[in-house]
Structures are given as C-alpha cells and as structure tokens.
Amino acid sequence: MDKRKRRVRHGMVKERARILVVGGGYVGMYTALRLQRKLKAELRRGEAEITVVTPDPYMTYQPFLPEAAAGSISPRHVVVPLRRVLDRCQVVVGEAQSVDHARRTAAVTTLATEEEGRGARLFRYDELVLAPGSVSRVLPVPGLADHGIGFKTVEEAIGLRNHVIEQMDIASSTRDPALRDAALTFVFVGGGYAGVEALGELENMARYAARYYHNVAPDDMKWILVEATDRVLPEVGAELGRYTVSELRRRNVDVRLGTRLESCADRVAVLSDGSRFPTRTVVWTAGVRPHPVLDATDLPRTDHGKLRCTAQLSIEGTTHAWAAGDAAAVPDVTAGEPGRTCAPNAQHALRQARVLGDNIAHALRGEPLETYAHRYAGSVASLGHHQGVAQVYGRRLKGYPAWFMHRAYHLSRVPTVNRKARVLAEWVLAGLFKREIVSLGSLEHPRAEFELAAGGKPSPEPPHNPKGSS
Predict the structure, then answer these.
(1) Helix, strand or coil for residue 56?
(2) Are 94 and 18 part of one and the same domain?
(3) Contact (CB, 8 A) for 111 and 93
(4) Which of 16, 177, 262, 318 has the most CB atoms around it within 10 Å of its CB?
(5) Residue 4: CA atoms inside 13 Å, Cβ hemisphere, count?
(6) 409 and 391 Cβ atoms separated by less than 8 Å
(7) 144 with 285: CB under 8 angstroms?
(8) What gap in Å lies between CA 18 and CA 23, rounded to an integer?
(9) Boundary-marking domain end, from 254, 286, 318
C-alpha cells in the first residue's frame, strides 16, 4: 500500500493525502463536502488536500430545471456556487481529458490552457473520486444536431424558455400561416422525468403567456410528446403513468407512445408512425449516457460503459479509486437479486456521496469500510402548476397533493439553507404576483448589438446544445 496514505498514528493520517474529485455535480460536490467535514483536522494540519475539477464553478440542482424554464424559480437559485460551499477545497474549473490510474495522474484542461499555449495540466493524486456524471444520449437522427434542444443544464433550460416565448412572438407577428403553425408546434422526445416535467411546466407557462397576445390562443399551440416505449414515467408505476398520459391529453397534449423520432431535418419532425409536423422546436430528453471521459481511463467498466463498482463504492479490481452516481454501476444490495445496480437518480447519488466520503476517510485512517445500502423510497414528478404524480413507500398520490410533495421534497434536498430560503421566497412571491413572461434571448449572444453598431456582422447564434449536452 502507498505509505503516503497508509501510515497511520493514533487514527490520524501522518503524511499528506492528495484527493482528486473529478466532477462537481451531486456526487462530486457532496463527496467533497463530506470529506472536508470528516477530514477537518487533517486539512487544518496540512495532512490532506482536496481538489475538485469541474467544468462549471457551480452545482446544478437538476430537479428544479423545469421550474426555472417556466420562470417559477430564478436561474441563479438553481445552482450552488462550489467555492462558497467547498471552502476547504481547491476548486479548479476545467475538463478532465484522461485518467491514468496506474500512474495516479489526471490530464485536465482549464480556462487558461489555450491562452498559455500549453497542453493539458497533469494532476497527481493518491485517492481518486471519479464522478463526471452523464451527458445526453443523442441518437443519429437526421437534423437533430442542427435543430435539437437539450434539457440537462441551466443554460439549456433558460434558453428553451426564451425560445418558446420567441416562437410565440414570431407567431403573433407573421402573416405566413405555415410559419405560424411551425412556430406554435413544440415536440418533446422522451417520456422520462426530464421530458414530462419540462413539457408540463412550459405548456403551463405558454398557456398563461397566451393571455397577453391578442392573436395567439392556447388552442393554437400543438404540444407533442414522443415516447419510444408504451409508457411514460416508469419510475412511478404503470397506474400513475397512465394517469399522467390522461392528464396531459386532457390539456390537449398529443402523447405518442410506441413512437420514435426518425428525422427533424428541414425543421420537420417525422415520426415512426408516419406523422409529419413542421416545427421550430424539438426538445431532446431521450436518456443519458456516461460521460465521455470514462473512455479515456484505464479503469474497468461494464458493457454499458459505466465504471464497475463494489458495494463500498470503490472501483472494482483497483485500489484508491472510487466512483458513484450516473457514471457508476453500484450494486443494489437491497434488491434481493444478483447483478442489479442502483438507479442513476438524485436519491441514490446524494446518499452514495455520503458513504463515499466516509469510506475515503476510513481508508485513509485504516478503518473498516461501510457498505452502501438504500432501499428505493419512491418518486415524485411535477406536471405543471398544481399537478403532479408521486409514489412514495408504496403509496400513490396524484394532482395537488403530489405536486405539493414534489415541491416539499426537493426543497428539503436542495443544498444550503441560503438556497432553500431563496427558493421558498420565490414560490411565495409567485403565488402573490403575476408570472414573468419576458424572453431574454439576447443573453445567449450579448455582443450582437455592439458588433452591429461597430459596423461588423453579429456573430452567428450559438448552437442549442452547449458543452456537456451531446
């Protein structure tokens, strides 16, 4: 064993232990937070150091993305600044390009890499936490890369909100019936949490916004949900899945089950059932895949590309390497059947991070490791304002009670008291005042007006899929 980590005196780490956390999402942030609490004395004495490498200086609380897109929550309250929360860690804004665990090094590009004219910076470590999360699973659908919109980051959520309102503005001002019809047709691909909640919240927002347009009515808009399987929201059970479909159809949402998107080239959504919908909005929420950085590691993976982990959250067949969350295949010891792994959701990620932080501290001190075991408690989903579905500990809820439980649960889970108070205050204010329906599309290309004033041509509009979404 590495003497840097394993030499122990009276339960204390004797020499400096370098801990590298790759990823600043649920697992990355909560693991680092747990470590800086568990290793408080060691950090103070300089016997340990924690470095967090993350592409963004904040953690996004993804369950609130639909509400941020609908304008119920301010975008800045959906994210948690890592440097404020991880005040005893070194936060490096950059992308891990590769990991050579045999040499205990990770190659990282930072914001300064291109300016310096050098290659990736090598970070040496003694303990590795690999938690890069996942990215959108994009299929080779013609036109998708050019016209598709993702829904995994706060930038995409706010961009989609601006886009929907912009389409209503286009429909209100055009005299071309074909353009108007395409602008008011919104296609969402994927019937999981992201697709159903995003469609439910945005349809509700657009229905509210339509009252301020003299020539756009809610019935003029077409909302289409495309799902390849025969059910939506499989996590909440078949009965609540059928209720969700009925509720969406009651709101004039066209739900197409057992249907795939075959093409969206030339701004025409072509479905596998032969339907064709001219549209300027195709939102892709059809699943995720492990982060591409896993392809550039020497660590063992499953057939699906995830890191092969033990129930103690160490990476199988290696030492001093750990993983959890979307990128890890963690055995579900409560399932009662061999080979079953934990679902890639926030419920498991938050709990895995705590055990992961504890186990790294135990390993550094030569103590026994804990086994991760959590029986799935259930799921909650919002379908828009005052509507939702929930299955918690076998009990099924729908309508307002489920919507209230959805908000209460996620308010209790969003990190920091500061964020909890701000989100709660925004919900209270939203109940007292009218909803904002302003599109700030210029935020996506803020220099366009200045470039035009300076006599140049505005830079082309950036693609809909920002970093990490494809």
Answers:
(1) coil
(2) yes
(3) yes
(4) 318
(5) 14
(6) no
(7) no
(8) 16
(9) 286
Rounded to whole angstroms, the maximal C-alpha distance in the chain is 80
Burial 407-419 (b: 16+ CB within 10 A, else e): bebbeeebbeeeb
8 Å CB contact between 216 and 168: yes
DSSP, residue by residue, 16-32: -EEEEEE--SHHHHHHH
- What domain range includes position 193? 138-286
Instruction: List the Cα angle 352/34/91 in 5-degree steps.
Output: 105
Both structure tokens of 271: 């479905």
- Identify whether residues 261 and 160 lie together within a single domain: yes
Length of the chain: 470
3-state class of 401 per DSSP? Answer: helix
Token readout for 150 is 């993702």
pLDDT for 267: 95
User: In terms of Cα–Cα distance, which of 155, 257, 237, 254 is closest to 402?
Assistant: 237
147 and 278 inside one domain: yes
* Domain total of the chain: 3
Q: For 83-105, how does the pLDDT look when each residue is reduced to its tens digit (9 = 90+)?
A: 999 999 999 999 999 999 999 99
Other CB atoms within a 10 A radius of the CB of residue 246 amount to 10
Residue 209 lies in a domain: yes
Burial 191-218 (b: 16+ CB within 10 A, else e): bbbbbbbbbbbbbbbbbbbbeeeeebee
The DSSP H or E segment spanning 263 is strand 261-263
Pinpoint the alpha helices (H) of 228-379. Answer: 238-250, 346-364
